[in-house]
Design brief:
Elements lengths: L3 H20 L7 E6 L4 E4 L6 E12 L4 H27 L7 H14 L3 E4 L2 E12 L2 H45 L5 H9 L1 H31 L7 H18 L9
Keywords: Signal
């Protein structure tokens, strides 16, 4: 059984909670309202020939106002904020060329962020935060289009050329390593014909033929040196030692392992 005083206390607490919820306006803890200024704001750029245009978004915040009352405050102070943003835009645009939309956008938004735009509505403080997006004049945009396309084409060709050069360099390194490891292998030519066709097969044949010519030239030079050793006063031991050293150096260059006959 519930004690009467405990029951009355519980009912009183529920009644107080319901009364506070009914008497408090919606959004009292912090309302927010976002809207765009109608149309575009415009200001003459450097030279007073072409304008720059701004699309402005306003974000309103307040504590103690409902969403509906904050929207009313935004509508009431919208003209004041519009005038302020227009003055800032006109002041900064005159220092920028008609094509410098990005630079003007950064400067204008920095100035708007540093500004304190606070108003009063219904006894509550209302804050406004404008953000601008700068748009080029259509005539300026059309005039810049060919230059932008040319720059894009140059950058694309540069990037493609660099990528192609990297791929070629990678292929050259891979083929150099492969050919260096397989040089002299009798199965290399057949494998090249099966894997990459006749063109690559012919290239390897030419390389093998050139390599064979180099080996024959070195052999002839060694033979001539052998015949000249007696006239140079070199004995049989010195000749054998020199010949073996030259032969081992040749085998090392051609990646051929010497055969041990012992």
């Amino acid at each position: 059984m519930i004690h009467p005083w405990r029951w009355l206390t519980r009912k009183a607490a529920l009644f107080a909670t319901a009364w506070r919820a009914a008497s408090s306006p919606v959004g009292v803890l912090g309302a927010s309202h976002t809207a765009n200024l109608p149309g575009f704001l415009s200001a003459s750029a450097l030279g007073n020939v072409f304008p720059l245009h701004a699309r402005v978004t306003l974000t309103w915040t307040a504590s103690g106002l409902s969403d509906a009352r904050l929207a009313d405050a935004a509508n009431a102070h919208q003209a004041t904020v519009r005038t302020f943003v227009q003055l800032q835009l006109s002041e900064l645009a005159r220092e920028r060329h008609p094509h410098q939309a990005r630079e003007l956008e950064l400067e204008l938004n920095q100035a708007l962020e540093n500004a304190v735009l606070q108003y009063r509505w219904g006894g509550c403080a209302v804050s406004c935060r404008p953000v601008a997006r700068i748009v080029l004049d259509p005539r300026v945009r059309n005039a810049l289009r060919p230059a932008v396309i040319d720059r894009m084409t140059v950058e694309y060709r540069h990037d493609s050329g660099m990528r192609r050069a990297e791929m070629i360099d990678d292929h050259i390194r891979r083929w150099s390593t492969l050919i260096g490891e397989l040089r002299g292998d009798p199965l290399l030519a057949t494998a090249a014909r099966l894997a990459w066709g006749e063109d690559f097969h012919h290239v390897l044949n030419d390389m093998t033929a050139e390599h064979a010519t180099e080996l024959r030239t070195v052999s002839q030079l060694l033979g001539k040196a052998i015949n000249d050793f007696p006239r140079m006063g070199i004995g049989g031991f010195e000749w054998a030692e020199t010949y073996e050293e030259s032969l081992r150096a040749l085998l090392k260059q051609t990646h051929v392992q010497p055969v041990d006959d012992s």
